[in-house]
Amino acid sequence: MSSSAVEAEAPDLVCELDNVQGIVDALTSVRWKRHQDAVVELSEHGIVIIVEEISCLQAKVYLQRELFVRYEYGAQGRPRFGVSLGLFVDCLKIFSVPGRSNILEIQYPGPDMQLLLKSLDSVDACLYAEVRTRIPETVSWDYSFEPAGSIPLSFTVKSAALKEAIDDLEWPGSSIQISLQPDPPSVTLRGEGHGDLQIDFSYYANSDLLTAFSCDRQISHSYKYKFLRATTSNIPGSVIKDNRGSKLTIGRGGMLKVQHLVSVSKPSVPHTHVDSAGYQQPSRIAYIEFFVKPEVEDDTGNDS
User: Fold this and answer.
1) Positive or negative torsion for Cα 20, 241, 190, 297
2) Are 153 and 145 in contact (CB under 8 A)?
3) 26 and 288 in contact (C-beta within 8 Å)?
4) In tens digits, what is the pLDDT along the chain, a chain of 304 residues?
5) Which GO terms describe its biological process (predicted)?
């Protein structure tokens, strides 16, 4: 066989992970429905998994190449393929052994365009799985997140507190209004249903809970409860237990960006350095971003 033929058959990506559970936690965080499709995008910089719903809610999981103990990328451009998110997560769980470092090899594509998974941490047996892929049916929604002004409209709150607040605001078919005001620096989440329920986060009153705040004017937007809840409802307890901060930013037109961080440190080694804000060094963190469109485009502030 000629060398050119060998190169033509070389996979687009071969990579190895040493903490499968961290990736399971990250993907579980964006699985808000039982049957859900995802688009996987490969690049020399890492892997991005995208899930979305009717152009109102989109989530992205960023797995940077530094998360992998081996990352060999040979594709031209950025290959994209669709998978069943539930099936992919369930397959990954098979390779995850709690409390133990697991080496998982991921290869794409296989002979029939499958995503190939293989365990490498045992000399006695080899666990192997194939995940069927497909051509994505739709093009991912272009969220075009832009700042709402020269000063970011954002706040960082403990993930556990954010999840609890959103869970408490549940009203069937309702909306949640998120308001920021600079003086005094505070965030208000307000739900309407059979009555009104309001939760306030005051920056000065509890800096351990609301760990960062940036706002130069009063602003308010409403979001469908079911979409807002999806940004926190499936975060695993292990991630909540880390007590890491979740950052929420309101962009132009009221677009809401919710960011979470998930540790992908090896179970057998101590966690990497964590700074005073609760953020680990980038090489061992999976980044998760949700984008939620507002119900009403206008707000009480000025986005110009």
Assistant:
1) negative
2) no
3) yes
4) 344 444 457 899 999 998 898 899 999 999 998 889 999 999 999 999 999 987 789 999 999 999 999 999 999 889 999 999 999 999 999 988 776 667 899 999 999 999 999 998 766 668 899 999 998 876 666 667 888 888 899 999 999 999 999 999 887 678 999 999 999 999 999 987 666 789 999 887 666 788 899 999 999 999 999 999 999 999 888 778 776 789 999 999 999 999 998 888 765 544 443 443 444 444 588 999 999 999 965 444 445 4
5) DNA damage checkpoint signaling; DNA repair
